[in-house]
Amino acid sequence: MADSDARPGSGPPVDLDVLKLSDLxxxxxxxxxxxxxxxxxVASTSVQESVRSxxxxxxxxxRMVAQLALFSRNEDLEEVATADLKYLLLPxxxxxxxxxxTSREKRLEAVQxxxxxxxxxxxxxxxxxxxxxxxPHKSSSSPEEVSAPGSSxxxxxxxxxxxxxxxxxxxxxxxxxxxxxxxxxxxxxxVRRVVDSGQADDEVSRDFYLLNIRRWVTLCLEEMExxxxxxxxxxxxxxxxxxxxxxPSRRPMKPFILTKDSVQAQVFGAGYPSLPTMTVNDWYxxxxxxxxxxxxxxxxxxxxxxxxxxxxRDKEEEEKKSENxxxxxxxxxxxxxxxxxxHRRACPTVRTSFKSLKLQDSRSCSQSHHLLKxxxxxxxxxxxxxxx
Length: 388
Prior knowledge:
- By secondary structure, the protein is mainly α.
- The protein has helices at 21-37, 45-68, 82-85, 90-98, 107-127, 164-196, 202-242, 260-268, 280-290, 300-305, 308-323, 327-342; strands spanning 368-370, 381-383.
């Protein structure tokens, strides 16, 4: 709520039984200003007690106004006396004080009561043509009138803007109300200085009350939008409390145990164990037992020579090469014949590795040979000197 404006004739509160109508209005108005400007929490005990006290005073003043029949729909604004104009503010002040009530159990009741008072104030201002505005939609004012959303008694909730045009119009109306309120507050501050100085005549006092009434019209229109949203939330909350949704009963879940294999499958693989099941030696022995090991790195030619069929295949290949007049085979055969002619039968040599020897001059048997390397794939080099 915006800051309240000062009023003429405000005085200290007295006993409620001896208060006059004007005193009740002034005291209730003053309480609202104090509550609206206080720095204490609105939900504090002292503030809530002041709110209840102000509501009682303003309700008593409203009953007096109704008994005196100060206002009628058959008269115009000019026919209302200046001293009676301020009593038009009674419903607005009552609605504002009800909005200050913070009890959770009675919040829906407080908001509904505040809306009823605001609607009464706006309707009376519209009847007297105080200002031009569009009346808000009517809503239910009591919890008994609220029913389920699907029933026929449900209060229709205003639908939101369906297109950008209506949204723009709604935004423009808010901007216009805000501009009007600022203009009214500026004029009201000027008139208030004259009233506070005690030099205000009947016309200035009338302008002061009319400006206050028009200002409260803009405030009520702004409050009504947020009030409708809060009412919808509170009603839906009450409906949920009254008829909680029945949850389907289901059988309780049985406890289950995760086995070791399933846990390993989630960590090491998808559905199969990935932990080692044997050592390298076990694997080697198992494969050696089934005869599926490779040749253990030995050359294929050396392994093939161990079989008797390998020698026959070598001889056949040499014969084929000699028949085809292979130069390399012929040279190799001639060197072998020359070597046999020039060396005795008992001359030390390694027959199996003769094919890897490089012969330079093979006419003498007194040659020197050196064994350079032994083992698998032995390579011999023989240095032969001419001794002729």
